[in-house]
Amino acid sequence: MSLFRRNQNFKLKSIFKGHHHVTYKDVPAIKCPFDYTLYQMIIWEIKPDLVIEIGTNKGGSSLYIADLLELNKKGEIHTIDIPENNENELVHQHERIKIFKDGFENYNTSSLSKYKTILVIDDGSHQYEDNLKALNKFSQYVSKNSYFIIEDGIVNKMGIQGAFNGGPQKAIKEFLKDNNDFIIDRKWCDFFGPNVTFNINGYLKRIN
Q1: Are 201 and 148 in contact (CB under 8 A)?
Q2: Predicted confidence (pLDDT) per residue in 14-68, tens digit
Q3: Fewest beta carbons within 10 Å, which of 30, 40, 50, 177?
Q4: What is the DSSP string of 37-102?
């Protein structure tokens, strides 16, 4: 399966396989390098004082984002997972990272009003139901001109969305159908070419 035009040799399956071995500070990060590049530009541009990340896993992505926040000299990341998750010790040591292990459904939003610019990233189960629940819970806290990023809509392009009950793309379409506060930001989705990202149609910008 070709990711780009036919006269190019990049293959989606090989990139998908490789992204499982991406690390940051030797901690598994499991993210497409294209999207890592986009993340550092987005975080520099909007300079969030809070990033909410759903899905910690080992924590390589959390560390990367925390270090980007450190370059901005502001901000913290709240990374959310389940009690059974076993993240790397480096995640616990970083002063800009706070870990929450009761699932995103139980994350307490009562203190979010004190933050000026909030960015949300959903890199959790990629199940349609979970994506939609996260969108409905956290979208109201995303700041104007900031983003709610839904990761790994690539599962739809790979034809394995059935394992995710429709996956991220189904959730995005349903959410946007009834929500005029967000748009799919083609600036980031198409940065390397039309949807050359693992987060297909997943860079949702708040405009209202």
Answers
A1: no
A2: 777 777 778 999 999 988 889 999 999 999 999 999 999 999 999 999 999 999 9
A3: 177
A4: HHHHHHHHHH--SEEEEE--TTSHHHHHHHHHHHHHT--EEEEE--TT----HHHHH-TTEEEE-S
